[in-house]
Amino acid sequence: MSDATDDGEGAIADRIDRYLDALREWATGLYHGLVTHPAYEKIEKEAEDLEDTFMLACFPDAFGIPSPVSYYTAELLPYLESEFEAWERRMWDRGSMLERKGQQYHF
Amino acid sequence: MEKFVFFGGKGGVGKTTMSAAYAVKCADAGLDTLVVSTDPAHSTSDVFDQQLGDEPQAVDGRDRLWAMEIDPDEEVEHHLMETKRALGDQVSAALVNEIDRQIEMAHQTPGAYEAALFDRFVDVMRSSEAYDRVVFDTSPTGGTLRLLGLPEFLEGWIDRLLRKREQSIDLFEKAAIGNNEPRRVMDGDPILARLRERKEFFEYAGETLREHAAFFLVVNPDELSVRETRRAAEGLSDRGLSVRGLAVNRLTPGPDDDENGRGARYLRDRVATERAHLRTLREEFDQPVVAEIETRVEEVKGDFLTEVAAELDIDTAAPATPSSEST
C-alpha cells in the first residue's frame, strides 16, 4: 500500500513539474516573441544591410557599374556563395528603403 | 642605389635600351642583376637577341645577368583558373554557373590587365632575394604612373571593405542572442582572411616602391618628350616616389666644322634645337641629367650595349639592404 501512496505523491510531483514546464515554455515563448525575436531580427536586418553595402562595393559590375577592382574581389566569390545569391535577390526585390525597414514591424 | 630601379618615359624614347644598358653595367660591376620588362610591347628579347619568357632566364654571353618579360595575359588566365578552382571546391553545383559568370566578367574588365601586371611585378619584387639589383623596363608613362599609383588606392579600398565586413559579422554575432547560432562568425572567416592577405600585399608594394625603389626617366631632346617628362616627374613625386635623374637619349651628333653640305646644315640646326631642350632639362628640372647618349646608326645590341652602359652616369653600388650588408 505504501507503494501506492508513493505513486500518488509521485504523480502530484509529476503534474507540478509538467505544469511548470508548460508555464516555462509559455513564458519563454512570450519573452522570445515580444523581446528576443524582434531584437535579433532587427540587428540581423542591420547586419544584412551592411553586408549588402559590402557586396555592392565588391561587385558593382553585377549591376552594370564597371569596377576597377573586380579583378581582386572576384577571388572572394567562391567563399561568398550563399551571400551572393541572397544579395542579388535582395537587391532586385527591394522596392524601397521604406519597404525594407517596414518589414521589421509585423503589422 | 636602391635594389629596385625603374626606367620610365614616353613611348619610343629608348627605355628598353637604357634599362638593358644599366643592367649590363650592374652585372659588369659584379651584381647579380635581373632585367624585367613590364611593357606589353616587349622588346627586351630583341635587345638581347634571345627569346625571353615569363620566368627569369640567364642572358647568353653575359655573366650575372638575367632577364624576363612579364606576360599579363598569362597572369589573368592563371588568376581566372585559380579562382575557378576555389569555386569548384567551395560552391554547390547548383550555384556554380551564376557565380562563374560573375568571375568571368571580372576578368574581362579593363582593370584586370593592369591588376595582373601589378600582381606579377610585385611578385617579382617579393621573390628577388637571389638578385642584388632588379631593373624594371616599364611601359610608357601613363600606364606606369597608373600602375605605380595602384597600391595607395587599393590599400584604401581594401581597408573600407575589411571594415564593412567586420561590422556586419559583428552584428550577426550580436544578433545571436541566447543559444542561437550566429549566421557568420569572425574567427576563420575566409573573406576577412583573403582581404587581410591582399592588404598586406598592397602594403608591401607601396612601402617597397617608396623606400627601396629609384626611378629614372628616359627623355629625348624634343619638345613632346620634355613636356611629358615634366608631367611624369611631377606625377611620380606626387605619389612619394623619388625620381633620381633624367637619362637623355638619341642626341644627334654634330657634323665636322669643315662640312657644309645640306646634310651638315640639317645636322647643325638639329643639334642647336636639341641643345636648347637639353638646357631646359638641365635648368628647369630638379633632377640631374645622368646620361647623354648619342644616336647610333646600328641597333643598340651586344658590344654597343656595353658602350652605352659606360656612358650612363648612374652608380651601381650595392643596395643598402640587410642581405647585402652582411657580406
From TrEMBL, chain A:
Pfam families in the record: DUF7990
Protein name in the entry: Uncharacterized protein
TrEMBL record, chain B:
Residues in ArsA/GET3 Anion-transporting ATPase-like domain copies: 3-305
Gene3D superfamilies (alphabetical): P-loop containing nucleotide triphosphate hydrolases
Superkingdom assignment: Archaea
InterPro entries in UniProt: ArsA/GET3_ATPase-like, ATPase_ArsA/GET3, P-loop_NTPase
SUPFAM superfamilies on file: P-loop containing nucleoside triphosphate hydrolases
Annotated family: Belongs to the arsA ATPase family.
Protein name in the entry: ArsA family ATPase
Origin species: Halobaculum halobium
